[in-house]
Amino acid sequence: MKTVQLGQSDLHVTPICLGTMTFGEQVDEPTAHTILSRSLERGVNFIDTAEMYSVPPRAETFNLTEKIIGNWLAKTPGAREKLLIATKVAGPSRGMPWVRGGSANLTAADIVAACEGSLQRMKTDVIDLYQIHWPVRNVPMFGGVYYDPTQERPNNSSIEEQLRAMDTLVKAGKVRAIGLSNETPYGVHEFVRLAEQLGLPRIATIQNNYSLLARGFENGLDETCHRLGVSLLPYSPLAFGLLTGKYDAEGLTGANVSPDVRLRKFESTRKQRWGRPEALVAARRYNALAQENGMTPSQLALAFCYTKWQVASTIIGVRTLEQLDQNIDAWGTTLSPELLAQIDAIRWEIRDPAV
């Protein structure tokens, strides 16, 4: 795999990124270390985590994923030099009182303190890509569709304040590049505009939900990022497992569905966008299309992300070595123009049910 440049930064990463939010909840530490080592052996040089992880978030597992990564780095000579590590500072609390005491804000001091914590947990001197996990301002996200101006929070920290905090970290040599997550076209544009106007760090990336079931990024945000030179890091390319086919026969809670898979094990995830009935309906259509064309559902879903011009590096999340190898092996799968047209036809009927 050739590496790709992230935005206008000096970071060059593989087009596959290992996501780690399952580490510490669905994946125990020894298995997580094995997955990290195998990923590195397979040539993946990019891993993504967050201070909030593991997922689903709980007070008991807050910060745990970064600690698992730090322990692996400490016992794996040479690994840190081969890897680019991305992590995220949590945005304002969303029903999580263990995150900054449930604060509805994210101040400059919060960002600096969170970064220091991530550095200590991961036992590293620098974070290659430091991202804001979700916006401070009021935006529709995590399944929200409509912007509501009555929900504005005018006293929260500004984009400029957040950028100045990132500037402090970059100048201190603790962060190499910065990015956003779960952002909107307005947010991306404002971060870039203010950075250029004030001489502050320019965002390199945006990490948003993007898959066959959630192509909202293509409705204007892709043009924004293309014209401003911001790279997309799509998360959940398999839509929490819906696009693997594992739920096709019996639904999310079928008797023969493994009790260890996310949408079966955690009721909270079924209440989110992934648990919408129409999401499963659409997933079954795409999964059947994959099989009609001699592919596994996962191959089709991953190839869709791997080959899109909008995508820089696709974040894959796994529980087992087998899943890791299957996801990496899907690299190189191509989709014909005719198959892409069939994908678009399904989207026209069932428009982004897990956006």
TrEMBL record:
Coiled-coil spans in chain: none
Membrane-crossing residues? Answer: none
InterPro entries for the chain: AKR_Detox_Biosynth, NAD(P)_OxRdtase_dom_sf, NADP_OxRdtase_dom
Q: Does the keyword Oxidoreductase apply?
A: yes
- Write one Pfam family the protein is assigned to: Aldo_ket_red
Q: Where is the NADP-dependent oxidoreductase domain?
A: 15-346
| Key words, A-Z | Oxidoreductase
Q: Name one GO molecular function term.
A: oxidoreductase activity
Gene3D superfamilies this protein is in?
A: NADP-dependent oxidoreductase domain
Asked whether the keyword Ligase is assigned, the reply is: no
Protein name, UniProt field: Aldo/keto reductase
Origin organism is Rhodoferax saidenbachensis
